[in-house]
Specification:
Blueprint lengths: L7 H43 L17 E7 L14 E7 L16 E2 L14 E2 L5 H4 L5 E7 L17 E9 L7 E14 L4 E2 L6 E2 L6 E7 L1 H10 L3 E7 L13 E2 H6 L3 H50 L1
Antiparallel strand pairs: 1-2, 3-4, 5-10, 6-7, 6-11, 7-10, 7-12, 8-9
Length: 320
């Protein structure tokens, strides 16, 4: 039997298959080579970046426009019950949302402080009112309000009319000693007493002084301790009580023996002797007053700084 020759077509197909396999293997090898090169380049770049600080750009924050309005702030301490006048406050721009109960510019003049308003504190509906505060809101804790008759000259009272609510006075009693002897003695009975209410006060626009209604007696309300109230109540009807006005920041408590009217009449120079003796004490008191004044000023500055810091923190909170 005669053998058939190997078909040329089959041989060609085999060769083509070999070539195709070679090409595929070459392509795969090239892909692997390119991938390895990319991986090497990426690794080198990461090593380079690891040696350098990373810079992160902060996000841009646009300024927020805050709406403000005029708010009145106390320029000095305003005592409870004091009538608020223009020299006691000043206006400052304040964010609308910081103080919700502030008064308008035309609503402050003539109002009364419902409680003590510290220097730098905003004046609001919470601490200012058209009416005087209740007396119970004004009394210092531990003290009492006591009304008693204070005698004065038929034309003008013993202080010349310069006593106002919140002032400090000394109470002087003139009485018979011994009783029914017609020998009159005058003695300071209580010192540094706060006046809570002075009736019939009228403001002198030119001098800013407060003048009380003339006549005798006046019923004045004082702030006293319970023990002081007992002493004053026991003296009611015993003689005539007068009051003398003390200077601001003067809290000196002295020791006084009193004086008999007969002593003054018998010794015309007694008053000068007493005055000379008191000069040394007055000089010491003056030094203490200056110290008290400086301490009070520093306290007001510290309180104003705290209030200002609190307001600034509130504004910063609104801007964030």
């Amino acid at each position: 039997m005669k053998k058939k020759p190997f078909p040329l077509m089959i041989l060609g197909a085999v060769l083509l298959g070999v070539v195709a396999v070679f090409l595929i293997l070459s392509y795969i090898s090239k892909l692997n080579s390119d991938s390895q090169a990319k991986l090497d380049a990426l690794e080198a770049k990461m090593r380079e970046m690891a040696g350098r600080p990373v810079t992160v750009e902060a996000p841009k924050v646009e300024a927020v426009k805050v709406s403000t309005r005029k708010v009145a702030y106390a320029r000095m301490k305003i005592a409870a019950g004091q009538k608020i006048s223009s020299e006691l406050y000043e206006f400052k721009d304040t964010p609308d949302d910081l103080i919700n109960s502030s008064l308008k510019e035309n609503e402050i003049e003539g109002k009364f402080a419902r409680k003590n308003i510290e220097m730098g504190e905003p004046i609001t509906t919470n601490n200012a009112s058209d009416k005087l505060p209740l007396m119970s809101m004004v009394i210092t804790p531990g003290y009492r309000a006591m009304a008693m008759q204070v005698w004065n000259d038929p034309a003008v009272n013993s202080t010349g009319g310069w006593v106002n609510d919140g002032d400090k006075v000394d109470l002087i009693l003139t009485y018979e000693d011994p009783p029914q002897s017609k020998q009159m003695r005058t003695k300071i009975m209580l010192q540094n007493v706060k006046v809570l209410f002075m009736p019939g006060a009228q403001r002198n626009e030119e001098s800013q002084g407060v003048f009380s209604a003339a006549g005798a007696p006046l019923t004045v309300t004082f702030e006293v301790t319970p023990e002081q109230a007992e002493v004053l109540a026991s003296l009611e009807g015993f003689g005539k009580m007068r009051m003398i006005l003390r200077g601001n920041y003067d809290d000196h408590i002295g020791k006084y023996n009193g004086v008999y009217t007969t002593e003054v009449i018998q010794d015309p120079n007694l008053l000068q002797k007493v005055a000379t003796k008191s000069e040394g004490t007055a000089a010491e008191v003056a030094k203490k007053v200056e110290i008290n004044k400086a301490i009070a000023v520093e306290k007001e500055k510290a309180e104003a700084a705290r209030t200002k810091k609190k307001a600034e923190e509130g504004r910063e909170g609104l801007n964030q």
